[in-house]
């Protein structure tokens, strides 16, 4: 088997994780000068008239051009959580939706932990990102004391529920390990 420049390539069954970035760099530095010097038009594999090389059987096939194949090749645009949400930003339903999504993706917490977090923050702030305790000065959805601690997650911590949720989940993970343990502590002591 040969690479793009026709140099022999040795393939092993196990690819070492540290080798991937090095291989990518080698391909980039080996291909770019050759492509820049070439007078032939460049060809992106998988586009009209460009050959597609199969690694397994080393055969070459040409991909037909159809609107479906063109759409598959084009990169997908990633949407933010706000764009994907079925709720209005900073509403109680949005705050709950984002928190459930976030704790599952970042911490791997399950539905049981979600129910504990939902109850905990419902008791603390009612999921209101502008909630402020008049006596203690605790602020936001997780009732951070002082509220400015949340600035480590973003400058707009006063009004952005995403920043508050990220900080609150991080706080719970570092101090209690899970929302259910934080809720149990709060039920015993009256604070967390």
Q: Can you tell me about this structure?
A:
By secondary structure, the protein is mainly alpha-helical. It has 2 domains: 19-73, no CATH class; 81-189, no CATH class. The protein contains 7 helices and 2 strands, in the order αββαααααα. It has helices at residues 19-37, 67-73, 81-84, 92-107, 111-125, 161-175, 179-189; strands at residues 51-53, 60-62. A two-stranded antiparallel ribbon has the order 1-2. A hairpin with a 6-residue loop joins strand 1 and strand 2. Helix 5 (111-125) packs parallel to helix 7. The longest helix is centred in the first third of the chain and has 19 residues, at 19-37.
Strand and helix map with partners:
Layout: H1 19-37, E1 51-53, E2 60-62, H2 67-73, H3 81-84, H4 92-107, H5 111-125, H6 161-175, H7 179-189
Antiparallel strand pairs: 1-2
Helix pairs in contact: 4-6, 5-7
Give me the side-by-side strand order of the main sheet. 1-2
Secondary structure tally: strands: 2
**Helical residue percent band:** 40-55%
Low-pLDDT runs of 5+ residues are 31-38
What class would the helix/strand composition place it in?
Answer: mainly alpha
Can you tell me the overall shape?
elongated
Tally of discrete structural domains: 2
How far apart are the termini? 61 Å
Radius of gyration: 26 Å
């Amino acid at each position: 088997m040969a690479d793009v420049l026709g140099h022999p390539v040795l393939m092993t069954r196990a690819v070492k994780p540290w080798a991937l970035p090095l291989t990518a760099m080698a391909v980039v530095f080996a291909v770019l000068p050759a492509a820049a010097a070439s007078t032939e038009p460049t060809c992106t594999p998988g586009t009209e008239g460009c050959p597609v090389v199969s690694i397994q059987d080393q055969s070459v096939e040409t991909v037909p051009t159809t609107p479906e194949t063109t759409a598959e090749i084009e990169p997908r645009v990633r949407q933010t959580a706000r764009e994907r949400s079925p709720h209005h930003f900073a509403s109680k339903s949005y705050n709950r939706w984002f928190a459930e999504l976030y704790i599952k993706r970042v911490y791997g917490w399950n539905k049981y932990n979600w129910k504990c977090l939902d109850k905990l923050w419902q008791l603390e702030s009612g999921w209101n990102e502008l909630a402020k305790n008049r006596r203690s000065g605790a602020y936001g959805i997780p009732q951070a004391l002082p509220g400015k601690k949340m600035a480590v997650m973003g400058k707009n911590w006063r009004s952005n529920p995403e920043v508050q949720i990220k900080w609150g989940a991080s706080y719970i993970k570092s101090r209690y390990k899970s929302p259910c343990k934080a809720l149990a502590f709060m039920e015993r002591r009256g604070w967390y």
